[in-house]
Amino acid sequence: MMFVSGLCSALLLYTGLASVLGQDLGDMPFNESLDLAGTVSLRWGFDSKQETITFQLACKTSGWVGFGLSPSGEMDGSDIVIGGVNPNGTTYFTDRHAVGDQLPLVDGSQDYTLLSLKEDATGTTMKFSRKVQTCDKDDMEISTSAMKLIYAYGADDSIAYHNNARGTKSVNLLQSTQRSTPSQDTVGQLEMMVNSFAVPERETYYHCRIIKSPNFPGKRHVYRIEPKIQSGNVDLVHHMLVYACPASVSVELEGECYSGQSMYVFSSCQQVVIGWAVGGQDIWMPPNAGISIGTSDDPVFYRLEMHYSNSKLSKGRVDSSGLVFHYTSELRANDVGMLEMGLIVDPSYVIPPNAKDFKTYGLCNTSTFSQVLSGDPPVLNVFASLLHTHLAGRGVRVGHYRNGEQIGFLGKNEHYDFNLQETMFLGSLVQVKGGDEILVECTYNTESRKTATQGGLGTTNEMCLAFLLYYPRTKLASCWSLPEPTAMSAALGVKGTSELVALMNSSVWNDTAVGRFERTVRSLPQLMAVSLSNGTRTVGLGFIREFKSSPATACTTLPLRGAGESCAPVTAGLGLCIALLTSLISLTGTL
């Protein structure tokens, strides 16, 4: 019944979303380009009454096309469909699953339905649908978490190895947002880029550039943020952040972010405006909100932070990457803000080696906001999140608490992939009210590491962060926490970080020892720090609450079925859910 409950929640959420957007759920209101070149694009929509999802894959090829859901972003274990149009005009379409790197096997149960398949001068377009839960062991369930979508295509209709004609993108299919493109005569571009920067021969390098905003004739709203990665440098650019600078910053500047005299100027620009990480693509604001630029309340100077991950220590690499802000004079109702949350990036937080699923937590209690902000505590309407760890990260969840009880999630990626970090939309607004608590949980795997992993800026160090997009904008910059240092030293019997790291590297870490260390650290009081864009900050103490498991969505089958019959989900609960939806629709008249 937990599957039924979880699906009901998704259906109700989607019904509400369609009501707000004025869309029929039978349409395909959502779309994503699956590659930077725009060769492969996907449209989709969800039908709450039929519990089905419909896809339309468009690919610039006259050969076969493939699309799938993957547990890891790789082909092995994926749920795949392959189709195309033969030279004689006939079509082919099969539901398959991948085992290893061989040609995907045809499923015994064909659970995808082909709706149309055509080929013309622009390429091949394949439209198909399936149940959210097919109850077929060879199919992946479509959940409200981020899904790793894979695609591949061929130059002709001989289905064979795709070479480099493939890709992966992480997308939340059941919780997305529509895009609203303003009229062309109202738009412009603001570039936040580095210019022919010589990337050092260092494994990790953070480069900062302070950029002055042009003078605008009036307020503008940024509705889309486009990453521009220089050709050939995809392997170098790990993440990009744009920060708002306070009035004290009045000159353009460039240099290493966290070293040298300039670091003090760079660090004064604390409020994140937008963030992008490896694997991400364009970030679109919802139709009723945008990032404000051009007013007296907006920054004059911005700091662009580029994290270069030069793991091969390549020489002579030059980069001119960055972010492009697409703005419009067609103003929207709300100004967007971004709030950074999670674990303070500090070497005193240490993850033991040989850990299968070690968990860390960053706490934010919004009660502390009133200590740095005037007036009533703000209500944050959260609509999206960007979740961030480094190489050891395997999962990130953002729990939302009210009156001591967890009431939901503000972001969730339980199959985190370092190379696929997308901004994920929640599907509907979630209000964070004064007194609410937010808990960022990160899960790490260090089984391949023989020494301790410390928090830090390097790719082989670790972070546990969540960047929440919300409106209306406030002056809040960050809300982080860290186990209180004195309590941690006393609980572990060490003095300072160096002794803790030495203990980690000298001890034998098995599952029992890892679990005991995790529980000890989690039980400690948490030192919380809240910062504003002007550098004002306050600290407080809190404790980590229990974290709910994500709703179970495993397939539940009828207890009795004849030999050879296909698996079918229990329909009683689903029927009740649909009846509830029907009643709601008739009462509200939204559809």
Structure, briefly:
With 591 residues, the chain is mainly beta.
Describe the structure.
- By secondary structure, this protein is mostly beta strands.
- It folds into 3 domains: 2-171, Immunoglobulin-like (Sandwich); 180-333, Copper type II, ascorbate-dependent monooxygenase, N-terminal domain (Jelly Rolls); 336-556, Jelly Rolls (Sandwich).
- The chain is built from 6 helices and 37 strands.
- The strands form 8 sheets. It has a 7-stranded mixed sheet with strand order 31-28-34-25-35-36-37.
- A hairpin with a 4-residue loop joins strand 2 and strand 3 (52-59).
- The protein is globular and about 75 Å long.
- This is DOMON domain-containing protein.
Q: Shape from CA axes?
A: globular
Percentage of residues in DSSP E strands = 35-45%
How far the N terminus sits from the C terminus, by CA atoms, comes to: 27 Å
Class computed from helices, strands and strand pairing: mainly beta
Spans of at least 5 consecutive residues with low confidence: 1-26, 556-591
CATH architecture descriptor of the largest domain: Sandwich
Number of strands: 37
Average pLDDT rating? 85
* DSSP helix fraction: 10-25%
CATH class of the largest domain: Mainly Beta
CATH topology of the largest domain: Jelly Rolls
What is the helix tally?
6
Strand numbers in spatial order across the main sheet:
31-28-34-25-35-36-37
Radius of gyration in whole Å, from Cα? 25 Å
Q: The biggest beta sheet, please?
A: 7 strands, mixed
Structural domain tally: 3
InterPro entries: Cu2_ascorb_mOase-like_C, Cu2_ascorb_mOase_N, Cu2_ascorb_mOase_N_sf, Cu2_monoox_C, DBH-like, DOH_DOMON, DOMON_domain, PHM/PNGase_F_dom_sf
Pfam families: Cu2_monoox_C, Cu2_monooxygen, DOMON
Protein name: DOMON domain-containing protein
Keywords: Copper, Disulfide bond, Glycoprotein, Signal
